[in-house]
C-alpha cells in the first residue's frame, strides 16, 4: 500500500512521532534534509554522468513537467574542463576496457590496504558514486521548518563539495527552534547565507540564480495557511523566472497540500522531494504539474503504528494489487462464464461510442458482448460488427425490449453516445434505477441525472459512475473548473450523495467507494485526451465487473486503461495521436503481463 496523506494528517504524523514515539523533531528534520540531499545529489550525478558519456540532454527519456509550452531548462552542468580528473566511475570503466583483471588477489589487496590506508567513499543508495559534487546550488529558505530542512540540505551538499548559497526570506533572528540550530550549524561550517527580508532588493538572488545549476525551494511546506502576497510572491516569481532546475522540499512553496491549487502563487518545480508520505495535493492535475517528478524520502520511523493513529486519505493503485484481482482462466471456461455484457449506447451519428465500449469489453475478456441501441442504430451497426451482437431498444415497447435485452447479463455499460432525449431518459431510469445488477454509468447516462443526483442512491443493484469533471460538475451543480479545483472534495460529495462507486477521470484518475476509501491512479498520460477514450474505460470496467467485485473492476480497469496509453507512448515516443480504438488493443497483453507479475512498461 502507498498511502497518501492530507496536510493535517502529515502534521499529525510528525507530531505523533515526536510526542508519542519520542523521535526528536531534530532527527526527523535531519532525516528529511539528508534524504533530500541524497535525491538532489543523485540528480546532479546522473546528469553529470550523462554528460561525461556524451549523451545529449535531449535524448533523455525523462518527461519535462514544466508549464505547457515552456522551454526545458538548459543542461545542468558545464562540460568538464579538459584534463579534469577522471571520476571513480571513469577510472573503473577505463580499467575494465584495458582488460585489467576484475578479480584481485584478496590477500595481496588486504596487505596493500594495510600499507596505504586508502580512504574510500562507499556510496549508499541514492548517493552519487563520486564526490565532490560539481554543482552550484542556491537554497531559498523560509523562516519555518521547511526552511530548516533547507539548511540541512545545504549542509549536506556543502559537505559533498557543492558550491552552496542560502538565501533566507527573513532575518536570521526570526528563525527559531530546530531550524535555527540547523541554520547556525550551516553558517558555522562556513556556509554562505544572505538575508533577504521584505525591505531588501532581490537582485542578489537573481544574480545567484543566473549562475546556479539548481535552486532548492524551502520557503513553505505544510505550514502554508494563507495566500502568499507581496515580497514572498516576488521571491517565488524570481525562482520561477530562473532557468536552472528547481527542486522543491516537501511541496512547491505556495501549493495547498490538500487541494493541489496554488494559494496566491506557487513555485513551479521540476522535482519535489516530499517527506514521509505523499501529500494529496501533489496528486491533483494542478498539483502534479507544479510538483514535477515527486520523490518520497522516509523520515526514519516505522509507518504502521503512526498511520494507525493518524489515518490516510487515499492509496496509490499498485500493479501488484491489480495482479491479485486477475485470476487465470479455468481450462473449461465457456463464453457465458467469461462474462456477458450488455452495452446500452450509441445513436445516429454516435455509433462509434457504442462500438468502442463493446470492443473494449471483448478485449478485456468478456465472453459475450451485445450492444443494445435504437432500432436505426442497431440496423446500421449490424453491417459493422462481427463478434459483437446487437439488439434493438424499441421506444414504443421500451420496458419489454429492455427486459429481454437485460436477461442473463452479468453487467451493463450504459451511456456512451446514447443521447439526451426523453426516450434515453426513460431507458436510463429503467436500467440504472430498476435493474438489479451491476451497471457502469457513463457519459449521457450521467448527464441525464443532472439536478437529481440523489435519486441514484435509490438505485437497485450496484453502480459504478465514471464522470469526467464536466459530467461530475453537472451532477453536483458546479462548473468543471470548480471540480478540478477540489477533485477530492468533489468525489467524496458525489459518493455521499449517490452511494455509488465513483471514478473521477482526468490526469490522476480517482476512485472513491461508499465506505470512504479512495484510490489514485498514477499511470496514464495526455495521449488519453482523445475522443472515445472514456468509452473504452467504461467497457473494460463492465467486463471486469463480470468476474470481480465492482470496486476491484474499477481499480483494475482504470490502471490497465492508463497503462495502455503509457505503453503506447513508450513505444511511439508520442504524447498525442493515440486513437481510442488502439487503447483496447493493448489490453490482452497488459492483462497477461500483470497476471504474471511482469512490469509491462519495463524495458
Ligand atoms: N518536525 C516536523 O514536524 C517536521 C517538519 N518538517 C518540515 O516542516 C514543514 C512544516 O513546517 P512549519 O510548520 O514550520 O511550516 P512552513 O515552514 O511550511 O511555514 C512556516 C510558517 O509560515 C507562516 N505562513 C504560512 N502561510 C504564509 C503566507 N502565505 N505568508 C507568510 N507566512 C506564512 C506560518 O506561520 C507557518 O507556520 C514541512 O513541510 C516539512 O518541510 C520536516 O522537517 C519533517 C519533520
Ligand atoms: N491528460 C490526461 N492524463 C491522463 N489521462 C487522461 C488525460 N486526459 C484524459 N485522460 C483519460 O482519458 C479518458 C477520457 O475520458 P472522457 O473524458 O470520458 O473521454 P470521451 O468522452 O471522449 O470518451 C479518461 O479515462 C481520462 O482519465
Ligand atoms: K517548499
From TrEMBL:
Binding residues annotated for AMP, in chain numbering: 505-509, 534
Positions bound to (6S)-NADPHX: 145-149, 221-227, 250, 353, 417, 468, 535
Gene Ontology annotations of biological process type: metabolite repair; nicotinamide nucleotide metabolic process
A GO molecular-function annotation: metal ion binding
Domain YjeF N-terminal: residue ranges: 10-307
Signal peptide (UniProt feature, chain positions): none
UniProt superkingdom: Bacteria
Assigned keywords, A-Z: ATP-binding, Isomerase, Lyase, Metal-binding, NAD, NADP, Nucleotide-binding, Potassium
Basic and acidic residues bias (residue ranges): 102-115
Reaction it catalyzes: (6S)-NADHX + ADP = AMP + phosphate + NADH + H(+); (6R)-NADHX = (6S)-NADHX; (6S)-NADPHX + ADP = AMP + phosphate + NADPH + H(+); (6R)-NADPHX = (6S)-NADPHX
Enzyme Commission number(s) of this protein: 4.2.1.136, 5.1.99.6
HAMAP family for this protein: NADHX_dehydratase, NADHX_epimerase
Function text: Catalyzes the epimerization of the S- and R-forms of NAD(P)HX, a damaged form of NAD(P)H that is a result of enzymatic or heat-dependent hydration. This is a prerequisite for the S-specific NAD(P)H-hydrate dehydratase to allow the repair of both epimers of NAD(P)HX.
Subunit comment: Homotetramer.
Family recorded in the similarity comment: Belongs to the NnrD/CARKD family.
Protein name per the record: Multifunctional fusion protein
Species for this entry: Chondromyces crocatus
Gene name of the record: nnrE
